[in-house]
Amino acid sequence: MSFFLIDLCLVEYEMLRFPPSMLTAAAIFTAQFTLGMSREWNATYEKHSRYGKNQILKCSELKIFFHQKAAFGKLTGVHRKYNTSKYGNAARCEPIYFLLEAWF
User: Fold this and answer.
1) Residue 27 belongs to a domain with what CATH number?
2) Which is nearest to 26 in space by CA: 60, 52, 62, 55?
3) pLDDT tens track for 64-91
4) CA 62 to CA 26: how far, in whole Å?
5) Which residue segment(s) compose the domain that 28 sits in?
């Protein structure tokens, strides 16, 4: 799932403002939230990523937006790729619409 979210960002100009390390941290956070594995960004994640939850929130929000529109438009190659069993059908997971509401 995190690879799918990273691949979605590779073709988006808006994501150039974030450093690669933040893109990775936000992808892991968003993937865990999407898959229901974890709903917190604890001290261990902060220590290893060097980003707090408030720092990655905007990046995660954009990843969710790109996930929502991945199947539509001109650039659907990533969605088609991750919609196969070889990649765990990651594109079939529902985007998490409630992420921002859960933080506040």
Assistant:
1) 1.10.472.10
2) 60
3) 888 888 888 777 888 888 888 888 888 8
4) 10
5) 2-103
Retrieve residue 70's tokens. 């991945």
Domain count, the chain: 1
Average pLDDT over residues 36-55: 86
DSSP string, 22-78: HHHHHHHHHHHHHHTS-S---HHHHHHH---HHHHHHHHHHHHHHHHTTTSSS--HH
Residue 70's pLDDT is what? 82
Mean pLDDT of 18-34: 91
Return d(Cα 72, Cα 54) in angstroms, integer. 29
